[in-house]
# Entry
Amino acid sequence: MVEFKKVEKIIMSISMRLIILIGIIDLVCFAVFFKRETKVVEVTKVVEVEVPKVVEVVKTEVVTKYVDKPYPVLVWPKPVIIKPNIDWDNSMLQGVKFFEGYRESVYTCSGGVRTIGYGCTDKSVVSKGRICKDTAEDILVNHLERVKKKVDEVVVVELTEYQLNALTSFAFNCGMSNLKTLVSGKDRLNSGNYESISRIMPMYRKAGGKVREGLVKRRAWELSLWEGKLKNL
# Structure
């Protein structure tokens, strides 16, 4: 009986130790489990974003001009001025008609010459005594064409259409001899001095020994025509 109790105590002691050992093992396992590193996985979320639609692209151009500097200088383009087409022959015709004036009957001009129509001094026409406006204009147009050809022969430098017409009006009014004086000689048009016209032409303003206001205005108009400008009549 005594031995049985000893055996029982031994078994109880072993059992208690086993229970304690199991408890210790559980505690160790629990601690190890909570000490494990948690792996974080990043998940990229795709979000749909609405992109504005491009309707129109405006193209601009900038001119880059390089100068004697270490950097370029931006230069905006200069506006281009486009002049309208001008009928210079018609401008000359209307100007000559304005300054000559239409006369149905023969009259004596300020220079003492018998005249008719639009400054016509042709004796064969003057002798008729009267002329209608349409016929007078036709005679004027033909006369101006003849004068223009003579002017083109006298002037040896290049002329624009409006410069030729300005000299044609001058020659029609003052005669070819005065035109030759105007353009010929040292430092004048035929020598290449175009500026001489603006200086000399206004001097031809006398008729009958007197300065005539009409001739002053006519020379000013012819100079504006020479410069390619349209002066109001």
Observations:
- Strands lie at 63-65, 73-75, 103-108, 114-117, 206-207, 210-211.
